[in-house]
Structures are given as C-alpha cells and as structure tokens.
C-alpha cells in the first residue's frame, strides 16, 4: 500500500511561491490502478514525483509499503551522458539484479540493437521511453508510476507496453498520468481529477455514469478547441 | 536491526556503484582516464616542486621543502579537486536521482570521495618515490600522519558540503570558490611552516581546522625535531560543529536542486 497524507509541495519561482500540490491525500492499494486527470499545470506530475520520492513534500507524509518504480517520465531515471549499457550496469548494481539478465530482457524488449552502445542523449524521446520501461519491467515493481510517457512510443511499443503492463502485470498497482482517455479507460479502475493542486473529484471508470459524462464533456471541449 | 543491515547493504551498493561510475566516466570511460586521475595530481605536484624546490637553494631552511609541500600542498590540492565535486556530480547525475535509493548525499560524497582518495594515492606514490630517492626518511609517527589526514579529509568534506549546499542556492558560490581556494593556500601552510609566521599570525591561523590538520601530519613526520603547533581537541570540536552546519546547508541546497 502507498499512502499519501495531506501532501503539499511549494516551489519558489520568479513570481513568488507556487503551490503545485495543495494537500492531496491518496491511497494506492496493491493491484489498484489509478489514473490522474487534470489540465496542464494542475499538479499531476508533481504528485507522481512526490509519490515516487523524487521530490520531498513541503508538508505532509508519504508511506510506501510496497516497491514503487521511479516515475517513468520524459526525463529522469537515466544518465544522459552514459550509454544504454552503462546505464544498465549502474541500475543493475543499485537494484541488485544480474546485469546479464537485465541486458537480455532490455535488448529483447527495446529492439534498440547497437544503439544501446550510444550515449542516452542521442536517443529520441521514444527510444528513451522504451529503455526506461524495459528496465522497470526487468526489475519488477509492485507499483508503477507512469507520467504520460506511453504516448511518445510507436504502435509496436504501445502494444508491447499493453501486453507487459496491462496483461502480464495486471496484478500490479499503477498510478498513471495521461491526457488520452482511451489509455486511462483501458488501464485504470479509478480516476482522480486534480485542479490547481487539489483533489476535486473521483471516478469509478469501469462502472460510473459520472465518468462517462466527464469524458464526453472533455472530449467535446477538446474538439471545440481544435 | 535487520532492516538497518538491509539499508546499509543498499547504501554500500549505491555508493560503490556511484564511485565506479565516477571513476569510469571521468575521462571518457576508458582505463586511461583512471590512470590520468592519478597522474594529474602527480604532475601538478612535480611542477610546484620544481618551481619552489629551486627557491630553497637561495635560503637557509632546515626543513626539507618536499615535506612542506607534501603535507600542506597535497591536502590543498584535494580540497581544490573535491570542493566543487559535489555540486558538479549532482548536476551531472541528475537523472540518477530519480531512483529513490540514490540519495543526493550519496551522489555528492561519492564524487568527493573519489577525488580525495585519488589525491591520497598520489600522495603515497610521491612519498614512495621520495623515499626511494632518499629525499624523505621514515616518519616519526605514522599514527599522527593518519590522524592529520583524517582531519584533512574531514575538513574537505565539510567545505564540500558548504559549497554544494550554498552553490545550489547561489550559483555565485561556485565562481568564488576558485579564488577563495587560492587564499586557502595560506591556512593550508602549502609553502611554509606555521612557526615561521609572527606569533599573532600563528594565533589566528591556528583557528583553522585545516592548519591544525596539516601541523598534525608534520608532527607525525618530524616529531619534536621541528616546532609544530596544533590542538587536537579544538579541531575535533570545530569539525563537529561545522559538520552539523554543513549538513544543514546541504539539505537547504537540496530544495533548490531542480530535477
């Protein structure tokens, strides 16, 4: 179980203090899949980073009683100047996994071939996403934190992610940020809506009428904008 | 207790992985990089020795200059290498801090440890060479030399903690560090003995923990043959207080580190 108790996070910016997350309480039970919804800048990513321990909360507390992945996001988790293989070696050391097993799995999953010998900064966003996912699957966590990253991959990668995460690891917990309703609907049981750092609504995605209404309204709004 | 042991194992794994990474990635990731890490301080040392070694012929000093250099200049070199190491490592290894077990203190200290240890190893090599060529003799007390180096390393880590913490808040600190470290040649007694100074200068200099540390190593080498001035109790207390403040500064800086 992961428990976040009234966590808040403040940043200092040029314009003064910004409260990115404002007293959110959240419980993730084993196997529970939660989608975090909200507009850009509403505090979704900050929440995931707080749960993942990348940021320390300004106030409040986070209790982790299962193994939690690092936030799989566009950046972070890998060393940009090191090659894919050097990153794997480092990660195998800190997570105490056999390097050869890790390599075999990652080579198979990412299909990056010789590019794994190049420094990570030469990779495209999609390649980086593949590498991050592959490593996190090879290490195995009880709870995966995913910040919008599946969207950058190609079709083949998305299919593999679906297989690995939604099918093979359907018993794992998940905390996921995405703007794509299809992904959230497919992956999550519960949706929480965040607005200006506050938790404003909760949906039961599989059965809830309220969720369908919300999704419809949002989709219409997006169509209008485009 | 078992939890603590497990945490300790994780810590050892992370720290060693980071140090291997630091060693490997320093100069392009091949073996020559690691060798260069040792050779570089050695070269700097030889140049300084050549320049100042000749000066000694024009003055009448009873203290072999190489000993002054080895006990004073070497720890100063380590300070210069390690002082900015923490902040540089934090910025370079930002991506790795996403992994919870990689604590920001690990990243900062792994780099500083690598820098300090390599200077210490070159110190040993210089000593060995000096010993073979009969420029250096057997020290009076190895224990005092180790004690002095212990304080030296401790002080370097304290400075590193202050520079890393404050440097994350004010980037100016990183720029000031270089001229400041040159000023530190004086308290480090890099080219002099403490007893050469007038008494009131001696008084003020002996407040620096690094001066005390250097004098302790000198006592370890010369024994009572050459006057040395140091206060072990004061140095310990001073370092303890500074360590506490340094760690506070580090945590303060951590809040300003954007990942």
Describe the protein.
The complex is a heterodimer of chains A (226) and B (259). By secondary structure, chain A is an alpha/beta fold. Chain A has a single domain, classed as P-loop containing nucleotide triphosphate hydrolases (Rossmann fold). Chain A contains seven helices and eight strands; from the N terminus they run βββαβαααβαβαββα. In chain A, the strands form two sheets. A five-stranded mixed sheet of chain A has the order 5-6-3-7-8, with helices on both faces. In chain A, β1 (2-13) and β2 (16-28) form a beta hairpin. In chain A, α3 packs across α4 (125-139). The mean pLDDT of chain A is 86. With 259 residues, chain B is mostly helical. Chain B has one domain (2-254). Chain B is built from ten helices and no strands. In chain B, α3 (65-83) runs antiparallel to α5. Chain B is globular, with a radius of gyration of 19 Å. The relative contact order of chain B is 0.13. The mean pLDDT of chain B is 84. Chain A binds chain B through residues 12, 49, 52-56, 68, 70-71, 75-82, 86, 90-91, 93-96, and chain B through 10, 13-14, 16-17, 20-21, 24-25, 29, 92-102, 254-256, 259.
Jot down its keywords.
heterodimer, A: 226 residues, alpha/beta, Rossmann fold, 5-stranded mixed sheet, 3-stranded antiparallel sheet, 7 helices, 38% helix, B: 259 residues, mainly alpha, 10 helices, globular
Largest sheet of chain B: none
- Poorly predicted regions of chain A: none
What is the average of the pLDDT values of chain B? 84
The CATH architecture name of chain A reads 3-Layer(aba) Sandwich
User: What is the helical fraction of chain A, as a range of percent?
Assistant: 25-40%
């Amino acid at each position: 179980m992961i428990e976040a108790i009234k966590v808040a996070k403040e940043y200092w910016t040029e314009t003064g203090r910004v409260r990115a997350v404002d007293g959110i309480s959240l419980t993730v039970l084993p196997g529970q899949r939660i989608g975090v919804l909200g507009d850009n800048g509403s505090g979704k990513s900050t929440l995931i980073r707080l749960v993942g321990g990348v940021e320390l909360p300004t106030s409040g507390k986070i209790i982790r009683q299962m193994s939690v992945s690092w936030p799989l996001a566009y950046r972070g988790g890998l060393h940009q100047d090191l090659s894919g293989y050097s990153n794997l070696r480092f990660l195998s050391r800190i997570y105490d996994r056999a390097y050869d097993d890790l390599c075999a799995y990652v080579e198979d999953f990412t299909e990056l071939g010789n590019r794994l010998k190049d420094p990570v900064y030469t990779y495209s966003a999609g390649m980086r996403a593949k590498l991050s996912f592959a490593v996190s699957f090879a290490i195995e966590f009880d709870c995966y934190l995913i910040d919008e990253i599946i969207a950058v991959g190609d079709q083949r990668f998305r299919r593999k992610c679906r297989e690995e995460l939604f099918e093979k690891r359907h018993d794992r917990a998940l905390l996921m940020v995405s703007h794509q309703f299809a992904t959230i609907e497919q992956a999550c049981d519960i949706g929480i809506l965040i607005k200006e750092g506050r938790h404003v609504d909760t949906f039961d995605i599989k059965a809830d009428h309220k969720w369908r209404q919300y999704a419809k309204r949002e989709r219409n709004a997006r169509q209008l904008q485009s | 207790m078992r939890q603590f042991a497990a945490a300790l194992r994780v810590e050892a794994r992370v720290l060693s992985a980071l140090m291997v990474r630091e060693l490997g990635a320093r100069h392009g990731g091949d073996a020559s990089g690691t060798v260069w890490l040792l050779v570089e301080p050695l070269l700097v040392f030889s140049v300084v020795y050549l320049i100042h070694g000749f000066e000694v012929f024009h003055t009448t000093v009873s203290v072999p200059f190489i000993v002054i250099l080895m006990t004073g200049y070497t720890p100063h070199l380590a300070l210069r290498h390690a002082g900015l190491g923490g902040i540089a490592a934090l910025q370079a290894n930002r991506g790795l801090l996403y992994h919870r077990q990689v604590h920001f203190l690990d990243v900062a200290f792994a780099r500083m440890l690598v820098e300090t240890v390599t200077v210490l190893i070159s110190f040993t090599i210089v000593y060995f060479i000096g010993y073979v060529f009969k420029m250096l003799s057997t020290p009076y007390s190895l224990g005092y030399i180790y004690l002095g180096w212990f304080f030296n390393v401790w002080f370097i880590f304290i400075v590193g903690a202050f520079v890393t913490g404050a440097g994350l808040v004010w980037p100016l600190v990183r720029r000031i560090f270089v001229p400041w470290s040159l000023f530190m040649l004086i308290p480090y007694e890099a080219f002099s003995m403490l007893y050469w100074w007038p008494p009131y200068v001696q008084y003020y200099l002996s407040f620096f923990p690094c001066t005390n540390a250097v004098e302790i190593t000198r006592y370890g080498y010369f024994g009572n043959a050459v006057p040395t001035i140091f206060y072990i109790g004061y140095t310990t207390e001073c370092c303890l207080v500074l360590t506490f403040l340094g760690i506070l500064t580090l945590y303060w800086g951590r809040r300003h580190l954007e990942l």
